Amino acid sequence: MTDNVYTSDVTVDSASPTQLAESIRLREERIADNIDELVGRVHPKVLATRAADKAKSTVIDEESGSVKPEAIALGVSAVLGVAALIVGVSGRSKRG
């Protein structure tokens, strides 16, 4: 039988070898749990899902489920900008 002892609960001077061993084991478990949680947070699938959710919330209004007007305006502006660039480049190549 082991005593459940955390390092902060006992001092090295007053703890038995069994208590110290149990304290070390419990600390190792906590560290392993923390590492597992951190690995889960930086897993590529988790990061991709988080990025997709953030992008979705930028474009879609959560309350109505429709596309935000500012996202539509940005998309239209980008399309018009690319179209103007293509027309400008093709106009130069015909003159030259």
Element layout with pairings:
Layout: H1 17-41, H2 44-59, H3 69-95
What does this structure look like?
- This protein has a domain at 44-94.
- By secondary structure, it is mainly α.
- It has three helices and no strands.
Summarize the model shown.
The protein is an all-alpha fold and 96 residues long. It has three helices and no strands.
**Percentage of residues in helical conformation:** over 70%
Q: Give me the secondary-structure category.
A: mainly alpha
Number of separate strands: 0
How far apart the termini lie comes to 90 Å
Query: How would you sum up the major sheet?
Result: none
Q: Whole-number radius of gyration?
A: 30 Å
Question: What letter string, H or E per element, gives the SSE order?
Answer: HHH
Contiguous low-pLDDT stretches (5 residues minimum) are: none
Report the portion of residues in β strands: under 5%
InterPro entries: DUF3618
Protein name: DUF3618 domain-containing protein
Pfam family, one: DUF3618
Keywords: Membrane, Transmembrane, Transmembrane helix
